[in-house]
TrEMBL record:
Protein source organism: Streptomyces stephensoniae
Chain ranges of the SWIM-type domain: 412-449
Record's keyword terms, sorted: Metal-binding, Zinc, Zinc-finger
Name of protein: SWIM zinc finger family protein
Keyword Zinc-finger annotated: yes
Length: 458
């Protein structure tokens, strides 16, 4: 696994402090991007939380996922959550160390006691003493939240900088992108009342015993959700139900549970999203299709990365992003002069650099800026790299709807069938397109669309 190390420098540790007038939660920020450019310690919010103990539990749930590995649990994760200010809300995001669970807490305008937030994205320090303090909040006494330093000018910060060395595997970045692509294809499948939601979620196993049983499915009924032995229309895949354990933090405060998933296709396991609705907040967990396989290998972004058109379109669309909490492709298409299809491809490409996410409740994209090199996901995506090498080496021969790709000492046939490229390789035989195109189909796509490939070939 390709890894790099990023230094997250905080002015001081985040802390929960008490005084005679109430408690104050100070979340310290590391370097991030704002409309003013890069800042060492951006400040996004200073105001009161409408529901302090619910917000505390929601933040702990996001931190739980950031510190967890639901597969190969002997290894620990250590990625601090990401926070984005979108003007009318704060979004706290994290990914599990195994890359199989994406978590996001949206603290909406009504949860921020009427205060507006600044715009930008950064990491926030969630340390063990802070976690202990947050877990002890049991009443809704006034709680002041500060995201960022007490003083706006970084030069006024005194004392030593607290620095964390955080390993950032490339698969985590690809996971953020793939989770966004998967979510954009979800529909609302069920909405449960608070009582039904609590009963269902508390009935799920907390151990790992079910992880090896394969995909499990649930379907909406008049009274909630029930298991089904096969993926009937409208069913939602629940792969590794123990991975929803972080939702237990907020169950007592839930007002509803929304379940999202894609249309059932051939009975194959699929990703799904589980959104707990809270007063002024939403906590969402998105699960990869297999507990033993993270989002990073799903291949949903490869088509968008394989063409120069998407790269140019993404550059144009990125200029129009303005830290908006909801981004509509149709509106971007009108402003950019591109088709809606090309805008969606551009947003997918921007997602590979962590620049957009997808909000299921709003059915819209949102703008954020993760601290990643924009080309990093593309450089380290094995199938994409291999496809560029094949195309650049002249390994692709076109003959109408049929193409031939020489790879090693074998030659593979790639054929267009109903808008999908099929291949005679083992990858296609194993997955039938369910994990994105194989490297041979990607190479054919590059050559047909004239994408720039390795060695400058076209």
């Amino acid at each position: 696994m390709t890894r790099s190390v990023q230094a997250l420098a905080y002015a001081r540790p985040s802390a929960l402090e008490s005084s005679q007038v109430g408690a104050s939660l100070g979340l310290e920020t590391a370097g991030g991007l704002t409309p003013r450019g890069a800042e060492a310690h951006p400040r996004f919010f200073a105001g009161f939380l409408s529901s302090p103990r619910i917000a505390a539990r929601g933040l702990l749930a996001v931190a739980d996922v950031a510190a967890a590995r639901y597969y190969q649990r002997t290894l620990r994760a250590s990625l601090d959550p990401v926070v984005t200010g979108n003007g009318d809300r704060l979004r706290f995001e994290s990914f599990s160390g195994c890359c199989g669970v994406y978590a996001r807490l949206d603290v909406l305008q009504e949860g921020l006691d009427g205060q507006r937030t600044e715009h930008g994205t950064t990491n926030v320090d969630v340390n063990n003493p802070l976690r202990d303090a947050l877990s002890r909040i049991t009443a809704d006494d006034p709680l002041h939240l500060r995201v960022g330093p007490e003083e706006l000018a970084v030069t006024t910060l005194d004392g030593p900088v607290v620095e964390k060395k955080v390993p950032l595997p490339d698969r985590w970045l690809r996971g953020f992108a793939e989770a966004q692509v998967a979510s954009a294809g979800f529909d609302l499948r069920a909405e449960l009342t608070a009582a039904r939601a609590v009963a269902f979620l508390r009935s799920l196993p907390r151990g790992t015993g079910n992880a090896a049983r394969g995909a499990q499915w649930v379907v909406a009924t008049g009274s909630g959700l029930r298991p089904t032995t096969r993926p009937v229309p409208g069913a939602v895949c629940l792969p590794g139900p123990e991975r929803l354990v972080a939702l237990q933090r907020v169950l007592r405060h839930a007002t509803a549970l929304r379940v999202y998933g894609p249309p059932v296709a051939d009975g194959a396991a699929a990703a799904s999203a589980w959104e707990v609705v809270l007063p002024g907040m939403r906590l969402t967990l998105t699960l990869s299709p297999d507990p033993s396989r993270g989002f990073s290998g799903e291949g949903g972004v490869l088509e968008a990365l394989a063409t120069d058109d998407a790269a140019a379109d993404a550059e144009l669309v990125s200029v129009l992003l303005a830290w908006e909490p909801t981004i509509e492709p149709a509106s971007l298409a009108e402003r950019s002069g591109l088709s809606v299809e090309r805008v969606r491809a551009a947003l997918t490409r921007l997602g590979t650099a962590g620049r957009v996410g997808y909000d299921l409740a709003d059915a819209a994209y949102f703008h954020r800026e993760l601290p990643y090199d924009a080309d990093r996901a593309e450089r380290h995506n094995p199938r994409l790299v291999a496809a560029r090498e094949l195309a650049g080496a002249g390994a692709v021969s076109l003959d109408g709807a049929l193409a031939s790709v020489a790879s090693g000492d074998r030659r593979y046939q790639v054929r267009e069938n109903g808008g999908t490229l099929t291949c005679t390789c083992q990858w296609w035989a194993d997955y039938r397109g369910k994990r994105g195109p194989c490297k041979h189909a990607l190479a054919v796509t590059m050559v047909r669309r004239g994408a720039t490939v390795a060695g400058g070939a076209r």
